[in-house]
Amino acid sequence: AQVGQGFVLQQPQAKVAVAVGQTLILRCTTSGDGGAGPVKWLKGWGSGNETVYDQKTKDPFSCVTRAVNESNTDFTIHIRDAQPEDVGTYYCVKFVRSDSSVDEVFRRGSGTEVSVHEAALVPGMGTAAVVFCVLLLLLLGLSVALCMYRRKRQGRAGSLCPARTVTMGSSSSVPLRCCAGTPGTPSEVLDAESSNLPSQQSSKEESDIHYADLQPLPPAPQRGRSPGTAPTEYASLRVAAK
Q1: Would residue 100 count as lying in a domain?
Q2: Which Pfam families does this one have (predicted)?
Q3: 207 part of a folded domain
Q4: Structure confidence by residue, pLDDT tens digits, 28-43
Q5: How many CA atoms lie within 13 A of 101 on its CB side?
């Protein structure tokens, strides 16, 4: 059979778009016997073409690698870290060696047009970003509300009414402190009792009340007393009214 008869080269991608920094994948497969000669990837066609991949050349530091190493039918390549200068049309080409030991074009693919664009959000990341922002705003709102609630509670706890003094006659003033708004506190009881006192006792000019501190009396000396009588102790309270 004649060498090269029935040989097929397939380059299925007409156009490929990739973002900056991503990996560019260019597909090419062959079938049949193409004879001796390498398969290459060329960027552009004509006198200005550039060899991107050569089957005979192996550069471990190259950014271009084979998808399936050492394969004789799959010549798909990966170009890492795509950049704007990688824009162009790429061709998968089968070469054969002529009698003069020069590689000549035997088959050429239809070409793949490559475009490189700026990195964009992957589909779905936009929605995730929106959800994240909403959750962040909710957390911020809850934090503000909690802070205001704590300040309000602290304000209520510290809102004690000022000291109130009650003056009774010539005795010293007695300060009373109560909690605002608390029912049954001593201040309210005192106010209720004060409102029920006779009007003649509400004025200093009408009454003058003296209080005596009752203390246990010292033991009285033993004196003669009538049989059957018991010792007594008493204290007096004088109220002078004008």
Answers
A1: yes
A2: V-set
A3: no
A4: 999 988 888 899 999 9
A5: 0
